[in-house]
Amino acid sequence: MKLRAVGEDALLASLLRGLPVSRRVIAATGDDCAVVESPGRKTSLVLKTDCVVEKIHFASAADPILIGWKAMMRPLSDFAAISAVPQFALVTLVVPATRSTMWIKKLYRGLQRAASRFDVGIVGGETSATRGPAVISVGVTGFVEKGRWISRAGGKKGDDLFVTGRLGGSLRGRHLRFVPRINESRWLTKNFRIHAMMDLSDGLGADLPRLAKASKLGFKIDREKLPLAVGAKIRNAISDGEDYELLFAISPRDRNRLQKSWRKKFPNLLLTRIGRLAQPLNNSTSQLLPGGYVHFQ
Questions:
Q1: pTM
Q2: Is domain 160-278 given the CATH code 3.90.650.10 in the classification?
């Protein structure tokens, strides 16, 4: 069977199903980062790796500084998704021998700018030649306080669904300039009980059903309330992907306090209630959405 017929989620499920899981593993498959026990009593170790591939995640003519920025910020956005703190990064660079040294220097300038934004140290990596497109893979380690990390699976029936920022801006280049919502995520988990959370990397149409499925619930959203980026339409907000905003579930009892506190803390960043988690119907997520980005299809 071809990967095209399987799709990303089913492929990952088949690969990960047979992996052994140690008792030291707190969270692994099915969440944005792996969380494992660490020697410290108060924190857990967080690990994440991600990559960008030429002609998939960036155009060949894109500014290499922006490519480096994106390559670093993608795994950091996953740290935001579970409210973790990144610390160190390893960079693996796979490029054709025909690529110029200036391109590489600019790429690393972007990587370093992104890392320094969140006080992350690039401490090593690997390089390799390829006859194909360039690939930049970034692995990040960090920590999260025990009891503070947020998974996708904790949503409760009736929870409000919120998103940060605006959706649908990737086609206008925002996917190369975004800033992960680490500070916002840390503030949320310090001041509120967030039940479930993830970052929107593949689009609301792909990621919201994943959060609902992990929480064994369905969802209902008001499409007219989706916060749209400049020039975006509702279909862009649902399907384009690479928004890197936070999607989270919280009790409606906290709605008013959350919205009031958010406006004071982050006056320049929109926070929008887009719907709620609901009882699933017929083993589905209860509301059909156009799909977001899915690899191999």
A1: 0.90
A2: yes
